Amino acid sequence: MYTGILHNCFHEQQKNLKKVCHLNIIILLCISKYFYMEQNQEPIQQLNAIRNMMERSSRFISLSGLSGVAAGIIALIGAGVAFFYLDFDQRYFDIDRYFMERSYLKFDHSWLFITLDALIVLGLALFSGIYFTTRKARKKGLKIWDSAARRMVINMFIPLSAGGIFCLILLYHHLVFLVAPATLLFYGLALVNASKYTFHEVRVLGISEILLGLMASWLVGYGLIFWTVGFGVLHIFYGMMMHYRYDAKHDE
Amino acid sequence: MTNNEQEGIVKEIIGKLNKQFESRVRLGIMSVLMVNESVDFVSLKDLLDITDGNLASHLSALEKNKLIEVRKQFVGRKPNTRYRITASGRNAFREHLDYLAEIIRLKR
After folding, report:
1. Which domains, ranges and CATH numbers included, belong to chain B?
2. Which end of chain B, N or C, is more open, meaning fewer C-beta atoms within 10 Å of its C-beta?
């Protein structure tokens, strides 16, 4: 009899336990469903979310690699036009002759043509950059003009506008042979500065432009060639690199 | 280490995880403030893609726990509320990251 009671008791207890268990499971399911919607429980998911937020808030990730490629191609075309327009004497700035006869620099129609050519290249490159970047942002459903974009542009334009003014001053002093190196140098500095707010490749591109600018200021007279490499070849190279690293992968 | 032991440790660490950071929104706010000096309300709203009310309630909860601080100012006539992470908020978030890393390491 005693064992019978014990058995009954045990049976009852088990029944209760089962009920409790059942209730527990339901509660657990509810909780996990709630967590699943509101919270990322998995540590890896959480870390991914954190990383994503940090990147999106501090870096301008809509910058498209294709805009670099387009800018590079436009620069190459512009350089080609300049190369075929100028005669041999004008293609390479002869520094020895410059110091022998200070009258070497004449603001004639060929200077006007080159300035116009450069401005058109700059305008088209900017336009294509904005176009491809807007397209990428729209594709990813991101806002284009966010605080990271603003910071990138501001930080880029501080060295860039200083460089622009400096180049105008160089022209004023008739130091034409330093204009090409100065543009490359200041553009490189601008990129390094802006790279804190966008992809890492921009920093490497900036450093390459700085090195090229230093080389150009040493090997004076080959401004057009250094420009072609700096604004054409390097843009295409780093643009393609960024495109394959960030854009092409997401398109698939 | 047996499986049971390991699970026990993982559970213990999960217990230590800051409950403040369990919500997706709060984790997002803290992540943004970790890498930005200060961020205004509208930027946060755009980044997290949530409603004003939802964001405001999470922000005030974080502020109450002294994880973030608020600075209200005027830009022209428009009120501009900027948020900044506090030193204790930074520490708490770092600790949270360490725990997450620990869990991932143990589960491998």
Report:
1. 3-107 (1.10.10.10)
2. C
